[in-house]
Amino acid sequence: MLAEHLNAQAAEFLRALRRHREGSDATDPVQSARSALDMRRAARRIGGALHTFRPMTDTAWADPLRAELAWLSGTLAREHACSARLGRLLEAMERLGAAAPVPGQREEGAAASVRENALGIARAAALLERQLTLARTRAHSAALQALGSSRFHALADAVALLASDAPVVPGDPYEHAARAGRRLTEAVDALPLGRAARPYNAEAVHDGQDSPWHHVRLLLRLHRYAAEVTGGDTSALAEAGRSLDRHRDAAEAAAAASAAARTARIAPATAYALGVLHSSQRHEVEAARFAFQRAWRQAVVVMPG
Hints:
The protein is an all-alpha fold. The protein has 10 helices and no strands.
């Protein structure tokens, strides 16, 4: 069961790698990006299986491979994350600009204030675009460098061996999958779900409290990957997982807005616009926590055992 899953995911990794090379040779950026995403998905599933079912593997072989898969997955994820974050923040800035009052027949001082706020929003959007485009370009270069490195070629060779011969030892995969489910439940129980159940409770408005929620997101993903090995059903947790994805995206967008606001020598109106943007994203964090606790409680009712 575990060996078959590892064989299948390794084969998918190698197919994605072949498509990526073909796309690069044909200068097809869309195919290259899609195949890199497929490669990352396969790498995460292999790494997740090696983590959850570690007692059923040759750890001297599995642990270094899992570390290399995590390196590759993280490297390939950064460019996509920068692009998604930029799109999210610029869209939020557009909403902020649309909600701003339009100068009309009013006192000269009030009209000047409105114009200054609009200019601050435009400058904040331009600053975010510059910073995140630069980060995306650097992430793209890092991904290309990684995919051409000897380190990656060694990893690809290891995955190629895994596609035909997974060094798995006897064990009960259901026991290890169940343990992954218990770890998830324990981590969720430690969350402040009672406060998250109250809308506008301001618990998530401030930074610095996101790590336990990100950890639950990771455990939920590992639980889902374990179910792929054992044939379990995690469909009841799909909405909970999407809520945690939104939580992660909003938290990271808020952090990017906060970092931009610390740029030296920016105008007060620009800093104010970035502060409003940060606040709106933290409210999105709060909304995602509220949605997660509702989805989790509903999922617990329908999940077996």
